[in-house]
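lol forgot to send this yesterday, sorry. struct tokens for the thing we talked abt
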């Protein structure tokens, strides 16, 4: 718990501030750390669910991906059903930044899509009949799923689920064909 939170607890105990506000803040911090409050006490959550909502939720997800990969020291994340051509500039800026920091992605894209902003070896095709541009991102011990309208992303922190999704992604990667050229005029850092 941060020193500022401890200071607010002290002020609440002495009557300098409303203790209810401080207690709600403490409860929020504990819930974000995976503690669940139940009618019989507290329990540690096996997995955690986080929502990112509203316009611009995917760039905010990429910010979260970056923070978590830096925290864990990992250098790669996986994107299932990507499409660089329809990515807004805020998304491409974050991909550029992450690449500059040494973090790369592997992407499964629709067969025939040649608008590729990264290195060709970082992409594999999925047959058109199995492709849907509803993105899933696998990183660290988390799986993030967009809702298809880019207004909500659900992130589930669950090491077992993340590993299963990583295995599925890698299977599709292994059987997918690598693109042979790109028509993208703009490329991610280091992909030229």
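and heres what i got for the seq, position by position
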């Amino acid at each position: 718990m941060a020193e500022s939170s401890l200071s607010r607890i002290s002020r609440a105990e002495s009557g300098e501030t409303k203790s209810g506000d401080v207690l709600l803040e403490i409860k929020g911090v504990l819930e974000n750390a995976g503690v669940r409050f139940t009618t019989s006490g507290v329990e540690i959550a096996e997995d955690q669910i986080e929502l990112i909502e509203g316009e611009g939720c995917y760039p905010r997800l990429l910010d979260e991906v970056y923070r978590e990969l830096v925290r864990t020291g990992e250098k790669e994340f996986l994107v299932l059903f990507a499409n660089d051509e329809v990515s807004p500039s805020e998304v491409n800026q974050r991909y550029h930044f992450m690449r500059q920091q040494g973090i790369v992605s592997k992407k499964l894209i629709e067969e025939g899509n040649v608008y590729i902003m990264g290195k060709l070896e970082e992409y594999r095709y999925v047959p058109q009949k199995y492709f849907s541009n509803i993105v899933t991102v696998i990183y660290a011990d988390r799986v993030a799923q967009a809702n298809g309208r880019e207004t909500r992303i659900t992130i589930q922190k669950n090491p077992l689920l993340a590993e299963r999704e990583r295995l599925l992604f890698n299977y599709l990667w292994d059987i997918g064909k690598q693109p042979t050229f790109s028509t993208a005029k703009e490329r991610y850092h280091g992909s030229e």
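The chain has two domains: 3-44, 48-175. anyway ping me if u want another try
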